[in-house]
User: Fold these one by one.
Assistant:
Number 1:
Amino acid sequence: MHLRSPVTLGVVIGLSVVVSLALEHRARIGLCERQACLDKLSDQAAHLTAERERLSNLVAQASSGPLSEDQLRELLTLRNEVGLLRQACAEKSKLETANAQLRAAEARESNRLAEAQVLPNYWPKERLTFAGYGDPESAMKTLLWAMNESDSKLWRQACTPEALDKLDRQWATRGVSEEQRAAETKIMADALTSPSVGFHILETPKAWGSLAIIHLSFDGEGRTRTFVLRKIGDDWKFDNIVFDGQEGAGLSFPRSWPTSEWGTNK
């Protein structure tokens, strides 16, 4: 069995990172913008409520006698402002609902992070260190450590020759220099790990021959990514990363993965 990737490693990682950070950035900006808009609408609502009271008084006057030209003009203006008030109140309600949903999502992520941090297999990002390549879990820790160190040489040591070949061929096609390759690797590694404060394996790693699959939670970011590792000699190395929707659409996996003997609490 072999693994086929429809896109190069660098493109896959780059797209995931860009999308992830863009969504997070958009959500935070959206919350701030909605709050500012809510504040503005609240001020408008207060002003228009006062104007509506004036309109009611003018209507009451109209019922007791004819209005002057100025009063009639003011009445028409106030009626238009009442329409704007109704529209502003409806918009305010929508924004309040959207803000509540965003805050609820932030609260859920905060709770998930707190739950993850007490797990026995939780790996705080700042405590990551070299763990060797003797088993898939250790290799995963080493890969994350290399990414967190933003050292392209360390990162390359944690990859299979096939993964490096795919990336090198992509860079060669684009005419990327060695200096630029190191810079791009650093950017990808930083972006992939920087939104998270820690990591933990969601389930016992699955193995099939020389291939292993690890589902890893990026705690603090609220994302899960699937890593493919391959055994090269006595060492397990990073081979690929699978994103949502990619499995089954260009990647080939066994239907049944036997549970390995590795633990997940190292």
Number 2:
Amino acid sequence: MNRILEANKLSVTYNGGFMALNAVSFYVDECEIVAFVGMNGAGKSTALKAVCGLAPINGGSISAFGQQINGLSVDKLVAKGLTLVPEGRRIFSTMSVLENIEMGAFTVVDKEGTVVKKRKEKVYNLFPILFDRKRQVAGTLSGGEQQMLAIGRALMLEPRLLLLDEPSVGLSPNYVEKVFEKLIEINKLGTSILLVEQNVKAALQICHRGYMFESGLITYRGTAEFLQNNERLKSLFLGR
């Protein structure tokens, strides 16, 4: 199986000397869904930001598709096939749904317009509600619909690795289920997924493997089944 992403002994220290990550190592293989789980402040979002170049590392290395990506600019990371759906969705709330989706392909060179058209069709096939609401102002969508829009916008770049930061935050249980079902579908279409998620139960239901973060360290790692049966995770997150 091809290795999509690998971090080796990754460390991040913020101003004031606070160590947000302490020599953590993790990887994502082709066609996997991998989850980072843990409490607020555990380091999981920092790890994701380090991969995206949004949190400067001061130790260790990160490689994607067999090449080191430490210090690469965001546009170069996107060109390599990494795309982030940030926490809070960050849609363009005053623009229409269609305009938001088209902004996802802003960097795509497509003189004939055929590439963008095909990608929009793929997004609409995944999220029919976005087609129905394409003329609607994005800020008037429900939270769940906005999350679908943020994912759809990211998919316009046709990423090989889709990174998601807390996609369930602020969503109703019904929309959490809908969004996570779509992540399974996206993965089956060939996109690897790295998911940062506080909703541990939902994340472990869809991921192949996971990592538990605590105080800047990875304390447990393994298959979804292994983590679901882990006594500490059960006591902290899974309602035992």
Number 3:
Amino acid sequence: MTPRIVRGGGADFAVFPLGEASATGPLLIWAHGWGHTHAAFAPLAQAMRGIAPSVLIDFPGFGASPLPPGAWGTADYADAVAEWLPQMPAGRRIWIGHSFGCRVGLRLAARHPGLIDALFLVAAAGLAPRRSLAERVWRTVRRRAYRCLRNLVPDGPARERLRQRFGSADYRQAGILRPILVKTVGEDLAPVARQVTCPTMLVYGEHDSETPPELGERFRALMPQAELAVLRGLDHWTVLTDGQHQIAHRLSQLVERRR
């Protein structure tokens, strides 16, 4: 796929068309998860090629796209996409997101409802996870320990080693995108989800520990036109690989309903 550079929100970002978009049928817009690029969705987009054209996004700061002009939150990413989308041929648009891409899709559907006709959200994040008392206590102890040690360590390599020790895997690997990650994971999208009125399919892996299926149950309760599917035996990542055929099947059904 050959990238095309587009602009929105003061940022340039790469999009990858697959097939010719038209006003006669749905266009599939693929939005990757945190730390990934359009390539994570490329096999699925190829599998859907005979059903609908696609365009895959590298969000600003990921893949072939340069950094955004500041520490963006998901609303900034959604507004950037909203600025670009009207340049595409008029017609129905279905947003397919994974994890971080779901956060942006929810923002987009809530803030710019005329631009998206349906959402297909895989491993959607954005609600506070439910934790046991022991887990909450452990997290509080770790957080306080980090804050105390941070005050004793000067800024520089020593403090960075401390961040590496106490941070999540995404935090450790975020590098220059760390301010965006911190801003993103702190967002509560429950009020946003209540504003989403378009048809939505929520898909989760049964064994997903990062975005467990109970998030899907809560999202479904917040969104008036949401359906939920839990795919057996899959987790946060294998849902995109081992679960490819199941996702393609359910997405095909959504496409047919939106023609």
Number 4:
Amino acid sequence: MRKHLPSLNQLRAFEATARNLSFSKAADELHVTHAAVSHQVKALEDFLQTRLFDRLTRSIKLTEEAQRYYLDAKKALDIIEVSTAVFFEKRATGELKISVAPSFATRWLLPRLEDFHERYPEIRVELQPSMEVTDFQNTDLDLAIRHGKGRWAGLKSEKLFDEYLVPVAAPALAASLEAADIPQQTLLSASPRKQEWPHWVEAVIGEPASELRLILYPTQALALDAAVAGGGVALADRHLIENDIAAGRLIALNDEPLANDQAFYVSYRKGPVVEAKIGLFCEWLRMRLD
């Protein structure tokens, strides 16, 4: 009999509370109530006959003894999780919920998703197009594909590709344009990316960008749709427009793409183990982008 071994529920509640320094955040993570977490931590304190947290006015902090215990408890739980994951790593089944930037979804992912379905028929992919920063704590999402700098708290982010912007237009409009004519055209962009056109004009054309005629759309996907319809010139990375160019819907107006300071990333919860279905999807993404 292991008389000095606390219950697993007590350890999980303690580890989550210590890592977040919050009973409320630990409760959200474990999908239980604040009272349940407090009860498990109090039971562990009674078992150890030691105070683990100093309760301050609006926060908590680990005692010196608890800090050492937390590191050991976290290591032990990680070992158990990694060892248990071996039993599931071959069982890549079930639903994979992905929050994805609309431009990446419509322009790159959807045309290729059938290939993933054919390779892994036991995994059902559900896409949720969104521009919002993903809240993994309060949703059942597995993955997010986002445009940004890859620094999202609590998440592991893998870069899919750096972004190099190129101006594109429908064939009828592109036929009459030189690169130097672009600043005088109707320029299409997503609202969150409205600084990209001024940056491109100043960096590539070498002109001031104070009086550009911009039309802003909620998403880059809509801006590209407007470009296909002949409504103006849009900026995009070649990964997102390669199908449009191949089909003749869009034509690139410049052969020297401008490096952007942001990129596309795939993100998921940090942890010692990556679920098999998440690992397979990330591996598939990397393969298709090579």
